[in-house]
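<tokenise_the_fold>
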Amino acid sequence: MKASDIRKNAFCMPFANPAYPRGPYRFYNREFMTITYRTDPDKLRAAVPEPLQVEGEPLVKYEFIRMPDSTGFGDYTESGQVIPVTFNGKKGSYTHRMFLNDHPPIAAGREIWGFPKVLANPTLHARIDTLVGTLDYGPVRVATGTMGYKHRPLDLATIKAALETPNYLLKIIPHVDGTARICELVEFYLQDVQVKGAWTAPGALSLFPHALAPIADLPVLEIVSATHFIADLTLGLGTVAHDYLTDK
């Protein structure tokens, strides 16, 4: 194999059988249940990397997401914690922890953007009159979220605007000697967003301690809101907002 062929065709690991195809990655009928809760402000600030800032109330958005039709990635489910933040005065969201049950988006999410994706078993289903989300790490339940099913509609434009705000990730890729070769804050946006429906209802969330899935380290002190919405969207590529190896 010639070096020129490697340079021409290399875009992800493994070279001989890439773990995921080239993008763009379009999601159809992506279903979210997001439960927003207040947590311990000191623990929240300790979880958010500078230069991101936590301003206002100490909130966490716990997400259960069904992705039944995603180009290149297939049919899978995701769950985790997203924290409202600001960067240079601009409001956005920082993805703190994320768990899913599908290898290609785990590999692509970590390698391209720096998503903190870990293999686990999340679910999201309607159970009679209740929307139920769960997260199991191995045989152990670590999260359960519930909300009433489509009690009151929400404004679609408001949900769309929230989805189109910037998102931030802490991307770390090691060098061959084990040191950090890439350590940067990545900014990305969701694109071509079409919200098909959105609702709110009473919600509840329980997080359980686990050594390897420590989502309960940001404890639930009070439920603020619960939202359920369905959208088509494209996961846009990112830019480097801050390089920890070169920027002060």
